[in-house]
Amino acid sequence: MKNQAIKFKDLNFKLAVIQELMYNQCLIEPEFDVYEFVESYNKRKIDIDEEGYDPIPEVLKYFEDFEISEELAKNIEELCTDGGDEIYLQVCPFWDGEDDAFNIKIADDAVHFPNLKKVTLFYDEDQSILEKFKSKGIEAEWL
């Protein structure tokens, strides 16, 4: 049977997973590099100096379409969102971490990660997100 790709409900959850698998554990190669992506992207000219203060739509789309297999999902035991994470600087090169652009809003995607034991999340006004993870047996706290 073919290894199925996970269908994510929360793109920010997926970004945290890609951070862990691609940049922390180095299980996905090559590492995505926004500057290389922009150089080879031919549908329009993307100017990182001008556009890099907001998420670059084409980069977000790339990660939205990026497939994470159920097999790779087994390697995730902990997710920690941090403003200095490489993934966020790829999507939004000049992101200052001062907004909630990358906050995980729902915990539904945790069902695909049988070994996920702990999440550390960006602080969010919606306090219930911690409880949603805890109700799935996952330790959850704010960064």
Overview of the molecule:
With 143 residues, the protein is mainly alpha-helical. It has one domain. It contains seven helices and three strands. The protein has helices at 11-24, 34-40, 48-51, 57-65, 70-73, 86-91, 128-134; strands at 78-80, 118-121, 139-142. Helix 6 links the parallel strand 1 and strand 2 (118-121). The chain is globular, with a radius of gyration of 15 Å. 27% of the residues are buried. The mean pLDDT is 96.
What's the SSE blueprint?
Blueprint: H1 11-24, H2 34-40, H3 48-51, H4 57-65, H5 70-73, E1 78-80, H6 86-91, E2 118-121, H7 128-134, E3 139-142
Parallel strand pairs: 1-2, 2-3
Quick recap of the structure?
This protein is mainly alpha-helical. It has helices at residues 11-24, 34-40, 48-51, 57-65, 70-73, 86-91, 128-134, and strands spanning 78-80, 118-121, 139-142.
Low-confidence stretches: none
Based on secondary structure, the structural category is mainly alpha
**Strand fraction:** 5-15%
Strand order of the largest sheet: 1-2-3
